[in-house]
Hints:
The chain is mostly beta strands. Helices cover 0% and strands 39% of the residues. A hairpin with a 4-residue loop joins strand 6 and strand 7.
Amino acid sequence: xxxxxxxxxxxxxxxxxxxxxxxxxxxxxxxxxxxxxxxxxxxxxxxxxxxxxxxxxxxxxxxxxxxxxxxxxxxxxxxxxxxxxxxxxxxxxxxxxxxxxxxxxxx
Length: 107
């Protein structure tokens, strides 16, 4: 029978940066996003939060309803609803067309 070895809880993961990452910068991963909890130099390993609720920049004049699935647009560096970016999670607050941020539960 195979056995597992617990490594860490998973709310925060180790991340080796391909290029410099700033504190609280959104980091698109292959299938989700993380938030840098410290500056991470290229080639160094640092901590990324990969859960919890974060206020993130959002595309205007896009309207977002609480509960909408949202994505990180790597080109525009913001949240949108188009499934062409990296899944960010779901909106926990609504965003009007004039709004510039939305709170997102990343997971």
